[in-house]
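quick one, 421 residues, struct below
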Amino acid sequence: MKKILTNTFLVTLSFFVGNVFSYLLHIFLGRGLSVSEYAEFSVLLSLFNIFSVPATALSTTLTKQSSEFNAAGKKEEYTSLFSMVIKYEIVFGLIFVILTLFFNKFILSYLNLNNFYSLLFFSIYVALTLFTVAPVSYLQGFSLFKEFSFLNLINALLRLLLPIIFVLLGFKVSGAYIGLSASSLFVIFFSFFLLKKFFVSFKALSLKPYMKQFGKLFLASVLSSLGLVLLSNSDVVLVKHYFSSELSGLYASVVVVGKVFLFGAGTISVVMFTQVTDIYTKKGDVKKVFMSFLSIIILVSLLLLPVFFLFPSVLIRTLFGLRFIEASTLLPLFTIFVLFFVLDQFFVMFFLAVNKKRVSLLVLGTALFQYVLITVFHSSLKAVIVANIVSSLALFVIMLLYFVNYVSFSNSSGLQKRENN
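---
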């Protein structure tokens, strides 16, 4: 339990400090850019989250696979896997930039954007972030939580300072994404430095025996990540499509403040996933670890929830100023959505850690349900948030039923016997 608390504390602290810096950046952009420019930055950021679904899925898969290889002492295997993934990341990053440029007129028109260079540097940022997936995932897979947390802290500082510098130089939204791209370059070089001592000399080793398992997990992770990302970001894109730039900017501020809750409680899933994977691989007692993390996430949620209900105006005014104060009436309602989303994410990560891959279909189906709800019911921003709550609550109920029916904690081997469910 002490190790769990220590690792959870380190990772949560690094994410907390990182998110403080992230919110400072949003405060600067909210005050330094016009409301419409801030809406442009926010919708591109939501698109980043959506487009990065394959990267998120790859990260989940690599974290689990590298953890399993490391637990079994298979250094040549995890070295070969790392080399292979890096090559694919470079290729797909370049393809993404090219496709974004090819379809730039459609994207600009659909999202009511006017700045081509914002889209250009946004695509470069996505490509560079994709290249960080393998090394960062390996840090987690090897349970190097101290190094992982330190990297998060330094990266967070750069993600604050560099965008501010480029915006102040007059590059506006484009400058923000230039700065974010530069911070991704730092992550690439520094994470490679941290991991260098763990790799062995590269040999042409066939990974074919592991590819079937890897492919199944990757597909499940893609579907799960796609569902979670859509569930937490498609509302921003749809609001930008259906509402004016002013209302989109107000809604973006609610999302930014509301997700403080997500970052506060959601980071627990990061540590839980690696710990459960390691214990599951060694056929240990998963029940004990799961209950420990569940108690932590419930405690953190109970501590955070009252803040958003009692002080919405203070939070909005502090982070964005009086121009966004109208958004404060929506914050308590939006926090309910985030609460259920945090719990949904926690259960999804646990199920993937113990090879319950079918959960991905449930998540993706719920995201589709949310899209339909918002498309039909978008008479107001409040209606959009209600659609979010209905969707996340529905997924939580389904996940709870799935948990009761497919996971038995009578003994640790009960999980192992149904790993294909």
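The two ends are 29 Å apart (CA to CA).
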